[in-house]
Amino acid sequence: MQITVETIVSAPVEKVWDFWTKPEHIINWCHASDDWHTPYADNDLQKGGKFKTTMAAKNGSFSFDFEGIYTNVIAHKLIEYVLADGRKVHIRFEPLGNGTQITETFEAETENPAEMQQNGWQAILNNFKKHAELNS
């Protein structure tokens, strides 16, 4: 099963790409709620390159690494990767006037309901939008 989340960011695609891919920005937006944070991010953005982002509860009760290997990267247009658990993710960046549409499609995992997964990924995407627009 595939799930899609999307948003439109009021920033040019070049800036959106930098905010999405540079670790110094990833640590500021890659979490689903305000009681979580991202203490670590590493990103080798190229085909065969690896990424790793640590998401953690601010109270220290739980953390996990979100990691995978890039299978396709087309600057300012497309990112595809395979997560450590084998699921595939496809992210498209499309310029829209003064903004950028981001469409992210991922294979659902089987432990949590699809709606919960969609809500979590959408919350992270919403945090990204907020970060990108505040810093553009």
Pick out its properties:
single chain; about 140 residues; alpha+beta; Alpha-D-Glucose-1,6-Bisphosphate, Chain A, domain 4; seven-stranded antiparallel β-sheet; 3 helices; 7 strands; globular; START-like_dom_sf; ASHA1/2-like_C
Short description:
The protein is an alpha+beta fold and 136 residues long.
What does the secondary structure layout of this molecule look like, with pairings?
Elements: E1 2-9, H1 13-21, H2 23-29, E2 36-43, E3 50-57, E4 63-74, E5 78-83, E6 88-96, E7 99-107, H3 114-135
Antiparallel strand pairs: 1-7, 2-3, 3-4, 4-5, 5-6, 6-7
What does this structure look like?
It is a single chain. β4 and β5 (78-83) form a beta hairpin. Strands 1-7-6-5-4-3-2 form a seven-stranded antiparallel β-sheet. The radius of gyration is 14 Å and the shape is globular. It has three helices and seven strands. The mean pLDDT is 97. It is an alpha+beta fold. The protein has a single domain (2-32, 71-135), classed as START domain (Alpha-D-Glucose-1,6-Bisphosphate, Chain A, domain 4), CATH 3.30.530. The protein is 28% helix and 44% strand. It has helices at residues 13-21, 23-29, 114-135, and strands at 2-9, 36-43, 50-57, 63-74, 78-83, 88-96, 99-107.
